């Protein structure tokens, strides 16, 4: 249990059992409200209130959220805040920050917020001096990243490091890869970052073709240090080094391989010195780990000072989430809007549209964060959910998405709420581009909201002198129904601090939705079955002679037989 070192209050895990969501009073009130409001269009809502933008927007931790283009009124929001309160959001939030073991299926605390908190006031958890340990590891990250960046960390032939290859998957890849890309302008040209995650050898091979063993540093990143894909890539990288580093001995591996993990035995068994291991702790979930030493590639890429700014930006959002009343709380509002669409409008997916090229990996980062956290079908106490949980998260950078799948967003049969994310200032100096980018971003949300109705389309075609029969034929194709909701998140610029705040915003959104849906947002049992079956099938693909018997269905057996023939 956590305590403030001076006062040592004991924080108990709150009672985690909740009634089924659809049986709660506030959910039922929302249902009645939904029936009353569902026919009111966004156009009507804007026409009814000239101050809608001011009413439905807020600032926090350097971010601005415009949520005016959502199918909500003040009454809707009131019902949603009541739902959050009925689901015990405030004590749950307090419990997470305090270090209660809210990851009940793994009996773990959830303390990624401690990774970006100042050293004081200090946290203690089950006898662990959390703050002291976090800051001790940060100091090691600082020293090591400075040594590599300054060229004092040398490879086995005495040359400084030119290439860093992070080998990890899931949370041990997506976070640092996304952040390094987002902070591209803060990187140096003479230190290249590479990320290898896929067990498909093409991933590692493509990187190994580009790098020199004398000047390459491998970071083996795995919380468990047992993940099959990472272990295979790590062993192949080790073999490649020993085969290609002319004159290198096994003892030279220590200059070229470091590890980030919670598993010191696994790391040392692999052959990496514990002195070259950057630890973190079981209370950091993989998809919440970019703030820990899993962020080492970020510190290597942009320097420790910028990494500290990144942590500080997230901490500012933590403070906002923890302290702001629900009604003015950005992650809470974002989460409740998602619940509104998922559970009442039955919208099944959410599209993420960053209008910043350097946020290109943000949608796939959010896929893990949201879908691995809340893609659950049972409640915390194991009952089958009676209401829907996490939607599908997908997306790509604007403006590219506009010329690919935005057709469906505007005129498809499914309605998909969109999160537009943009910066007011660009990272580059090219004239004209930023205005064009922002114009597209704002135009898309306006088009989704307003649409273009039959009378408008007809008048437009008639004004162009189009013959009447052609107007009639084309009219249905050219109508945009509109009334399609979106959020717009704006930042001044993409900096380490604003990026930190943005990620923390979504982390807390996920937490709030997990509380409403009553799921454990911090375990991921759903990935286990495939891992076990893959390991069995791997044995069957390589075993000699071929295993007999009918262990599989005819489809899987047939595929295995084909692969055995190809691999033999
Ligand atoms: O299989 C899913 C998962 O456990 C993710 O939750 C995690 O981020 C990823 O694998 C990598 O795990 P590790 O860091 O232990 O290699």
UniProtKB/TrEMBL annotation:
BP GO terms, sorted: gluconeogenesis; glucose 6-phosphate metabolic process; glycolytic process
Subcellular location: Cytoplasm
Gene Ontology terms for molecular function: carbohydrate derivative binding; glucose-6-phosphate isomerase activity; monosaccharide binding
InterPro entries for this protein: G6P_Isomerase, G6P_Isomerase_C, Phosphoglucose_isomerase_CS, SIS_dom_sf, SIS_PGI_1, SIS_PGI_2
Pathway assigned in UniProt: Carbohydrate biosynthesis; gluconeogenesis; Carbohydrate degradation; glycolysis; D-glyceraldehyde 3-phosphate and glycerone phosphate from D-glucose: step 2/4
Catalysed reactions, as listed in the record: alpha-D-glucose 6-phosphate = beta-D-fructose 6-phosphate
Main location: cytoplasm
HAMAP family named in the record: G6P_isomerase
Function: Catalyzes the reversible isomerization of glucose-6-phosphate to fructose-6-phosphate.
Database matches in PANTHER family: GLUCOSE-6-PHOSPHATE ISOMERASE
Name listed for the protein in its UniProt record: Glucose-6-phosphate isomerase
Organism: Collimonas fungivorans (strain Ter331)
UniProt lineage: Bacteria, Pseudomonadati, Pseudomonadota, Betaproteobacteria, Burkholderiales
């Amino acid at each position: 249990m956590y305590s403030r070192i001076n006062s040592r209050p004991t924080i108990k895990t709150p009672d985690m059992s909740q009634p089924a969501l659809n049986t709660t009073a506030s959910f039922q009130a929302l249902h009645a409200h939904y029936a009353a409001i569902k026919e009111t269009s966004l156009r009507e809502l804007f026409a009814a209130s000239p101050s809608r933008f001011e009413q439905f927007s807020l600032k926090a931790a350097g971010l601005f959220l415009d949520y005016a283009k959502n199918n909500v009124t003040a009454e809707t929001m009131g019902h949603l805040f009541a739902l959050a309160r009925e689901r015990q959001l405030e004590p749950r939030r307090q419990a997470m920050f305090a270090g209660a073991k809210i990851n009940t299926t793994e009996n773990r605390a959830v303390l990624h917020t401690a990774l970006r908190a100042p050293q004081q006031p200090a946290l203690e958890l089950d006898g662990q001096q959390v703050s002291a340990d976090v800051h001790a590891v940060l100091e090691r990250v600082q020293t090591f990243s400075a040594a590599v960046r300054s060229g004092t960390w040398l490879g086995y032939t005495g040359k400084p490091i030119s290439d860093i290859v992070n080998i990890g998957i899931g949370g041990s890849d997506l976070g640092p890869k996304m952040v390094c890309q987002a902070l591209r302008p803060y990187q140096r040209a003479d230190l290249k970052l590479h990320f290898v995650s896929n067990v498909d050898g093409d991933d590692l091979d493509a990187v190994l073709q580009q790098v020199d063993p004398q000047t390459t540093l491998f970071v083996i990143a795995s919380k468990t240090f047992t993940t099959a894909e990472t272990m295979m890539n790590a062993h192949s990288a080790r073999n490649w080094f020993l085969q290609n580093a002319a004159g290198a001995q096994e003892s030279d591996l220590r200059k070229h391989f470091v590890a980030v993990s919670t598993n010191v035995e696994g790391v040392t068994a692999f052959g990496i010195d514990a002195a070259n291991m950057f630890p973190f702790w079981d209370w950091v979930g993989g998809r919440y780990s970019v703030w820990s030493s899993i962020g080492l590639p970020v510190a290597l890429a942009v320097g420790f000072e910028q990494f500290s700014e990144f942590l500080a930006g997230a901490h500012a959002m933590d403070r906002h989430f923890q302290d702001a009343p629900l009604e003015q709380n950005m992650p809470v509002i974002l989460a409740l809007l998602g619940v509104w669409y998922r559970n009442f409008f039955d919208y099944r997916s959410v599209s993420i549209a960053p209008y910043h090229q350097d946020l290109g990996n943000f949608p796939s980062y959010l896929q893990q964060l949201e879908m691995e956290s809340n893609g659950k079908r049972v409640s915390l106490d194991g009952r089958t959910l009676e209401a829907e949980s996490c939607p599908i998260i997908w997306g790509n950078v604007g403006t590219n998405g506009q010329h690919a799948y935005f057709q469906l967003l505007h005129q498809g049969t499914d309605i998909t709420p969109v999160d537009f994310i943009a910066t007011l200032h660009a990272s580059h100096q090219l004239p004209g581009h930023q205005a064009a980018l922002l114009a597209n971003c704002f135009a898309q949300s306006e088009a989704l909201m307003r649409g273009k109705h039959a009378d408008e389309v007809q008048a437009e075609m008639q004004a162009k002198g189009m013959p009447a029969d052609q107007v009639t034929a084309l009219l249905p194709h050219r109508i945009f129904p509109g009334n399609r909701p979106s959020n717009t998140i704006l930042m001044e610029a993409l900096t380490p601090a604003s990026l930190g705040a943005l990620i923390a915003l979504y982390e807390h959104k996920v937490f709030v939705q997990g509380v409403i849906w009553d799921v454990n947002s911090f375990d991921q049992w759903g990935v286990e079955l495939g891992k076990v079956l893959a390991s069995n099938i791997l044995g069957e693909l390589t075993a000699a002679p071929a295993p007999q018997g009918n262990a599989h269905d005819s489809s899987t057996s047939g595929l295995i037989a084909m692969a055995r023939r190809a691999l033999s």
